[in-house]
Specification:
408 residues; alpha/beta; Aspartate Aminotransferase, domain 1; Aspartate Aminotransferase, domain 2; 2 domains; seven-stranded mixed β-sheet; four-stranded mixed β-sheet; 16 helices; 45% helix; binds pyridoxal-5'-phosphate
């Protein structure tokens, strides 16, 4: 039995291994088209990186607030390691909780205007754990077509019935909710800011639809924290607190330059999560360096709203320069500014032309985005000064002209 099954399994696995990301392998077959897994060395306090001895302007990084490498954040991480060591001492429910975790959770709760918060070891784990703690078999989750993969995975693992609705379309959600049986928990999940398009979920309308159907609303603030809302408090602040979410969740790996995820809500709900969210309960605590760095960065965000204002002003200016010159920035209204190009190959060629201008703009291709909408996913940070962005815009436009994407 084993003798006949084993070779077949090996062949089947080999076929999968060979097939993995065949498209990316094809696209990156020439050295000057390589874009994934490049060993960038960030230049602290700047938006530049070194790559194979060359200094390049990074335009596709995540550190929206420009705090990666900030001396205060680095010091906080070092102090935390000196105090609590490396490693995590265990899962949070057992030996893994330190006063630093509690401090970070108190800070995140306050920042988000909620009673309590819980920190996970990644944003991915926060989504998977939270969906699974809210929904199970017999319950129903309604997700936007463009929701992040961690939400999709969380829904699938939960065993709940999953229904997708059209992107940023509250009327379609309304129909989906009307058509579904009104049993169990009904949970609607959206990204506050969509990571490939930079558009914002219509929170007030979604809230109304949820209320009409007795559904809960959960928002993923991964690309919203520190980016939208006058003081970077995310989607609720963006809409002047006209509507609130039932569950607010985010990551510490983007605007906040650390690692980890967070969920904020009522004290009772957070207590439930502590015991019901499996990626929290059965995975080691967030390390001291990450916890200390995140705590310091959230406090800086709270004090330095100018960072948020700069991101918003400069993203708008960059977007209008680029789109006025004929490039397609889609529905972007945040720091994520996609340069939508067309085929996967065209996006790769454009990225190469940008590199020749000294700019890193990383391509995102199918299946991460719909066919024929391959793009460079540009992210504006507080470290991109107006002068740097003006220079970058000129570089992008020269590259686009050389690729015949716009008129020379
Ligand atoms: C919308 C969204 N949610 C969740 C995550 C996962 O966060 P993390 O990278 O901290 O695991 C990401 C990461 O890209 C994201 O874009």
């Amino acid at each position: 039995m084993t003798a006949t099954l084993a070779p077949a399994s090996r062949d089947n696995l080999n076929a999968k291994v060979r097939g993995t990301h065949r498209r990316v392998k094809e696209l990156e077959s020439e050295p000057n088209r390589r874009n994934s897994f490049m060993p960038y060395v960030p230049v602290p306090g700047t938006p530049f990186v070194d790559l194979f001895g060359e200094r390049l302007l990074m335009m596709s990084g995540y550190s929206y607030l420009g705090l990666s490498g900030d001396a205060r954040v680095n010091e906080a991480a070092k102090r935390a390691v000196d105090m609590y060591g490396t490693g995590s001492h265990g899962v949070r429910a057992l030996a893994g909780t330190t006063p630093l975790h509690e401090e970070l959770e108190t800070e995140l709760a306050g920042f988000n205007g909620r009673e309590a918060a819980l920190v996970f070891s990644s944003g991915y784990a926060a989504n998977v754990g939270t969906v699974g703690a809210i929904c199970g078999p017999g319950d129903q989750v309604f997700i936007d077509k463009y929701d992040h993969a961690s939400i999709v995975d969380g829904c699938q693992l939960s065993g709940a019935t999953v229904t997708r609705f059209r992107h940023n379309d509250p009327e379609h959600l309304d129909r989906r909710l009307r058509d579904a049986p009104a049993t169990g928990v009904r949970l609607v999940i959206v990204d506050s800011v969509y990571s490939m398009d930079g558009d914002i979920a219509p929170l007030p309308q979604l809230r109304k639809v949820c209320d009409d159907h007795g559904a809960l609303l959960m928002v993923d603030e991964a690309h919203a924290m520190g980016v939208i809302g006058a003081t970077g408090r995310g989607i609720e602040e963006h809409f002047n607190f006209e509507a609130l979410a039932d569950v607010k969740l985010g990551t510490l790996s983007k605007g906040i330059p650390s690692m980890g995820g967070w969920v904020a809500g009522t004290a009772e709900f957070i207590y439930h999560l502590r015991y019901a969210a499996r990626p929290f309960l059965f995975s080691a605590a967030l390390g001291a360096a990450q916890t200390g760095a995140a705590l310091e960065a959230v406090r800086i965000l709270d004090r330095e709203a100018w960072r948020v204002a700069r991101i918003q002003a400069e993203s708008a200016r960059f977007r209008s320069t680029i789109s006025a010159a004929g490039m397609n920035t889609g529905a972007s209204e945040t720091a994520v500014v996609p340069l939508i190009i067309g085929t996967d190959l065209e996006a790769y060629d454009f990225a190469t032309a940008c590199r020749d201008e000294g700019i890193i703009g990383l391509p995102v291709v199918t299946p991460a985005v719909p066919v024929s909408t391959a793009r460079l996913r540009i992210a504006i940070t507080a470290n991109h000064s107006p002068e740097i962005l003006d220079e970058a815009a000129r570089g992008f436009l020269r590259a686009a002209a050389r690729c015949n994407l716009i008129g020379g």
